[in-house]
């Protein structure tokens, strides 16, 4: 890890010792159970934020989950955690097209932060308002957080990647801008529902160059003009200044990738995490660890916390903030045959109508014992 302890990413310096305390939330309803846990880790500040709303809308049985990975400060990630799901719910197509509502909410975040009210709220979230922040860092934060309204309103050098998942009926609607990642487990096999939006990805590079910017490789990563290392995010308005282009075509865009996935009986759980987690574990490895922990009886909150602890273990720990969100789907198992009802035909006994409609909630602790691969730690990618 070259110069790891003296490195600086935006406004977040890296400390010698990690902050291991965690913030963990849990919840459930009759369709799913969820938990989310965050840890500051080796960063000097916590810039991640999240939102978990099991019952966003009861009438449509809609749940919302979002992970926001801030950079340059926590202002934009905190803004998204407060407003994003509400903007989805307010959208005229919330009831008939979640895809449209989710896509619109990404653009709404940029629009809302460029208003006077939005800028005031961002300022309140800035570490510059923290009495424990020294004066030099305060001046830096105040200088970069927002710019003059007449020049370029809104957050200039502070932003956030965003990955959200809405669950309604038998569908998962995922929206992603940046390098947070969403993965589902089907019978123990990882399926990735998002793309990591990096400047070096050919399609992203073409948009960046068409917008008049360049991709420069610095420190082994492609960066827009040698700066930011993601190609899609909310905020970061200094990369969205080409007046000839729509927001979707800017060098750095908030335009999300949207994916709709069906929930089947084989769909066990969904996991979303920021890149601080995915930097040190692979998709399949993380799925196996989660399944193994579930089968051993570990609840979802402890499962999330155990993964965060694992990610800061030597010899190559993650040096980023980390947030992980886990959703387990509750499936109804078919009822056992009713021995009091028999069919005289060639098929033998048949379930009664009542027994066919009766189901019990799935219990993950009764699953088969973990395989050898599930017992092992996931491979780590460095």
Automatic annotation (TrEMBL):
Q: Where are the transmembrane segments?
A: none
- Please name the top-level EC class of this enzyme: hydrolase
Q: Which Gene3D superfamilies does this UniProt record tie to the protein? A: PPM-type phosphatase domain
User: Which UniProt key words apply to this protein?
Assistant: Hydrolase, Magnesium, Manganese, Metal-binding, Protein phosphatase
Molecular function per GO: metal ion binding; protein serine/threonine phosphatase activity
Q: Which InterPro entries match?
A: PP2C, PP2C_BS, PPM-type-like_dom_sf, PPM-type_phosphatase-like_dom
User: What EC designation does it have?
Assistant: 3.1.3.16
Cofactor names: Mn(2+); Mg(2+)
Q: Cite the residue spans of the region called Disordered.
A: 1-28, 334-382
**Which PROSITE patterns does this one have?**
PPM_1 (PS01032), PPM_2 (PS51746)
Where is the PPM-type phosphatase domain positioned along the sequence? 33-329
Ranges of Low complexity composition bias in the record: 366-375
Q: Name one Pfam family in it.
A: PP2C
Feature: compositional bias, Polar residues: 1-15
Query: Can you supply a Gene Ontology BP term from the record?
Result: signal transduction
User: What does the similarity note say?
Assistant: Belongs to the PP2C family.
Q: Give the protein's recorded name.
A: protein-serine/threonine phosphatase
Species for this entry: Triticum aestivum
Q: What gene does the UniProt entry assign to this protein?
A: LOC123185665
